[in-house]
Design brief:
By secondary structure, the chain is mainly alpha-helical. Among the domains are: 34 residues; 41 residues. It has 4 helices and no strands. The longest helix has 35 residues. The N and C termini lie far apart (93 Å).
Length: 109
């Protein structure tokens, strides 16, 4: 360690300290940015309604009516869609209750 300090001339020591201070500050800023991005992505994933369904019940009915799905395939796919929809509803937070009078009150004469 003494060799390293002795190698740097005394007039260069403040500049090297400044460089390392800037490097450390840069690392802190990059670390903070990574944490912020990760937190936002995590919140977005938690708030999402889940994976998008590849098709709707209406699409399934059409395929079944056209004969492209057997009764067993239709029931299996229908059950999966309904289960995913139910899980998404249970995962979503309950609606907020309004705190105040309704704005659209009608007067009757």
């Amino acid at each position: 360690m003494r060799w390293l300090i002795a190698q740097n001339a005394p007039e260069r020591l403040p500049w090297s300290m400044l460089v390392w201070a800037l490097v450390l500050m840069g690392m802190v800023i990059v670390g903070w940015a990574v944490i912020v991005v990760a937190k936002r992505r995590s919140e977005a994933y938690r708030n999402s309604s889940g994976p998008a369904l590849p098709f709707t019940l209406h699409d399934l009915r059409k395929l079944h009516e056209q004969g492209q799905l057997t009764d067993a395939e239709f029931e299996k796919a229908r059950g999966r869609i309904l289960a995913m929809s139910k899980a998404a509803l249970e995962k979503s937070p309950p609606p907020r209750k309004s705190s105040g009078a309704s704005v659209t009150e009608k007067k009757t004469d």
